[in-house]
Amino acid sequence: MEEQPDLSAVTHVAVGLSVVFLTGIDRLLPARSVLVLDEPDTLRARRGRERTAHLACLAGILEAPTQDERRAERLSGLLPRPDRLRAVVPLLEYGVVAAAALAEAWRVPGAGIPAARLLRDKALLRERAAAGGIDQPEWEVVSGSDGIERFRERYGRRCVVKPANRQASVGVRLVGATDDAAEVWAATTAADEPRQRAGYALPPKYLVEQRLDGPEYSVEALVADGTLEFANVTAKSVRHGPSPVEAGHVVPADLPEAPAEELIAATRRLVEVTGFRTGVVHAEWIRFGGRPHLVECAGRLPGDAIVQLIDLSRPCDLTGEYLRVLEGGRPSVPASPKGAAAIRFLTAPTGRVSAVDGLERARLAPGVVEGDVSVAVGSETGTVTNSWERSGHVIATGETPGQADRRARAAAELIRITTEQ
Description:
With about 425 residues, the protein is of the alpha+beta class. It has 13 helices and 19 strands. The protein has 4 domains: about 10-110, Rossmann fold (3-Layer(aba) Sandwich), CATH 3.40.50; about 140-210, 2-Layer Sandwich (Dna Ligase, domain 1), CATH 3.30.1490; about 210-340, 2-Layer Sandwich (D-amino Acid Aminotransferase, Chain A, domain 1); about 340-420, Alpha-Beta Complex (Aldehyde Oxidoreductase, domain 3), CATH 3.90.1170.50. It is globular, with a radius of gyration of 21 Å.
């Protein structure tokens, strides 16, 4: 590690650099109170120092082996505990284990190392969920296309293939009856996100799972000392095709009270069986056969602007409440939503972008609070296989989930991204 910055004012150590999160807490925390730890390669690839130089809350960014999950416990020996430390915050998926290890070593609330390791390995999580009686698809760890072929023969030749320790739908494939297992295996094992993941990180592990058909939801819960203190249910929609990348989210999910409570109860049970202590869980579920079935669960704040949707619908400041929990307090979030919010993601046709039209119209559409296009004229677009490859988004609010969703969809349809082959 390089020379350490001044730690005298540091109260929060963030593991993994998230510009979105740091921008959100810049208004909440004092100047020079946040120290960020991240991998040197990913910091450079994502221009982390340049993109956060304007943030007053930053005390500094320190290069550290935050993705060395096998030896996460040694991280606390590489820098001193800040005297005024109040919380260790996992900002990225690949920093969840390191954050738990630091929190434990430095005696502040955290997920706990065993729970963090479970949430970072989908195979281990499946094993623990099965032992805890949580409904989930049938599954196996596979090491080649033969394993995929044997598994899907037992389940109508349909299955899901996914990495056990990635994020953002990277490498996830929905496999149909006529798909070539060797081609699926090649595509899944080739998928990576080098801008996010250190080259030495844990080697990949792959799962094949039973393919369940049903509506998809996620539960975002703040947990303090193993108790769910707040929970939100989000409805999710995914793109059609072999890569199940999210097309949109609606908060709150438009569900009757009973099924919504079932999703929250299933998440509470998941917290119990994993031994998760303090922080946030983002648990994804499919309702199949009338019951929630576990897809996966993360031990950090959700992406895809779900935090913003929760803030808009309550209203509240979920980021601030998350910090309060990690500092040992209890959150204060409105018990019921006051409205609804939705996001729709944009997908450009493949090719070279020749024009982007309609963005300003979309931003002025009813209920729209944010619209953004992330591709520029002259850039190349390809087939969307993970969340990083989408082309923008629109966020809208409404009095009901249905109205918010319709507004977001209508505004997204006003934006035209033209490409040429």
